[in-house]
């Protein structure tokens, strides 16, 4: 009897030790950054708003609608998405709206270099550090395009005209003066020897830039490869140059010449990703990061990349945050170098 009692006590003690160890052990789930994070049961409880801080048709709008489409169609996120355009101020109108919902876990927005350019131009008090980086998704490149009947056959034709008279060519973009469409073009023609101080830049933040180009109201449009693909396929435009370091490989975009192959030693990358409000909960941010990671691995997303001439450029939240800080320093130096910002 005594032996049976001792055996019972031993089994009971061992069981209690196992239970205690199990209570102290944290449930972990794979992290999209390659490490591990505590698992969370957080899920969106209502439709998710994606703010495109620009008019319809531009890079932010296209990114927002493509992300929403793939996440919904692939049932990666159960809730519906509503894409809302809030154009103006080079993005600052949209950012102000997002800032007013600083703790909203059901709000996302696409981001790209203007979130650096606009505050560096003192056009907004809000910048990348005011929001929550979720993930980087794509890399795109600038594209300088003209209408199909333009007298400019290549980038050097345009450069020659601008060297003779910088005011003879009007350039349109959807970003504000001093922001991305403006700056990438100024950088490229400046490298080629154009006096950039007299370049005529028209800001069409209402998303009307392509209409202005095709209607003959402006001579050239500074945009991105993704924006150029559909109009090129339709035969409406000519692509003078793109800012990639070498020709892209997909079917349509492989026809677009680079600046470098035309003797202009310049390149510029347009990265894009998704962010949330500055005080989004860590659980929500992790949920969206994992959802976007899953999306980026689907065939449907890869088809969208090919459709728009985007390159895959995945970075998880922590890597993306570090990248953004580094990009800010790089862009600030660029603006100082071409005289659009004073050295501190």
UniProtKB/TrEMBL annotation:
CDD domains in the record: PBP2_Bug_TTT
State one Pfam family annotation. TctC
Top-level taxonomic group: Bacteria
Per UniProt, the keywords (alphabetical) are: Signal
PROSITE patterns xref list: PROKAR_LIPOPROTEIN
Q: Which residues form the signal peptide?
A: 1-20
Name the Gene3D superfamilies for this protein. Answer: Bordetella uptake gene, domain 1 (3.40.190.150), Periplasmic binding protein-like II (3.40.190.10)
Would the keyword Methyltransferase be found if you checked this record's keyword annotation?
A: no
Q: Check the record and name the PANTHER family matching this protein.
A: TRICARBOXYLATE-BINDING PROTEIN, UPF0065 PROTEIN YFLP
Kindly provide the name given to this protein in its UniProt entry: Tripartite tricarboxylate transporter substrate binding protein
Q: Which organism is it from?
A: Savagea faecisuis
């Amino acid at each position: 009897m005594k032996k049976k009692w001792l055996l019972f006590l031993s089994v009971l003690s061992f069981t209690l030790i196992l239970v205690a160890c199990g209570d102290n052990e944290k449930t972990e789930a794979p992290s999209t950054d390659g490490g591990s994070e505590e698992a969370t049961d957080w899920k969106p409880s209502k439709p998710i708003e994606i703010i495109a801080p620009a008019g319809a048709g531009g890079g932010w709008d296209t990114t927002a609608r493509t992300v929403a489409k793939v996440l919904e169609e692939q049932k990666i996120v159960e809730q519906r998405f509503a894409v809302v355009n809030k154009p103006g101020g080079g993005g600052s109108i949209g950012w102000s709206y997002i800032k007013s919902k600083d703790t909203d876990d059901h709000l996302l927005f696409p981001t790209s270099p203007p979130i650096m350019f606009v505050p560096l131009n003192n056009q907004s008090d809000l910048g990348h550090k005011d929001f929550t980086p979720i993930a980087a998704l794509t890399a795109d490149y600038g594209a300088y395009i003209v209408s199909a009947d333009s007298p400019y056959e290549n980038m050097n034709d345009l450069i020659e005209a601008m060297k003779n008279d910088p005011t003879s060519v009007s350039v349109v973009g959807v970003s504000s003066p001093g922001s991305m469409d403006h700056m990438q073009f100024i950088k490229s023609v400046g490298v080629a020897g154009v006096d950039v101080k007299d370049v005529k830049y028209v800001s069409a933040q209402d998303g009307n830039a392509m209409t202005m180009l095709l209607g003959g109201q402006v001579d050239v449009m500074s945009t991105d490869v993704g924006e150029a693909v559909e109009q090129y396929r339709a035969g409406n435009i000519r692509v003078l140059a793109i800012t990639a370091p070498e020709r892209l490989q997909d079917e349509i975009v492989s026809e677009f010449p680079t600046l470098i192959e035309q003797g202009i030693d310049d390149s510029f990358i347009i990265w894009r990703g998704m962010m949330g409000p500055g005080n989004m909960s860590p659980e929500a941010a992790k949920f969206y990061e994992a959802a976007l990671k899953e999306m980026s691995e689907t065939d449907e997303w890869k088809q969208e990349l090919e459709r728009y001439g985007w390159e895959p450029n995945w970075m998880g939240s922590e890597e993306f945050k570090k990248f953004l800080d580094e990009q800010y320093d790089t862009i600030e130096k660029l603006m100082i170098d071409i005289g659009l910002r004073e050295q501190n």
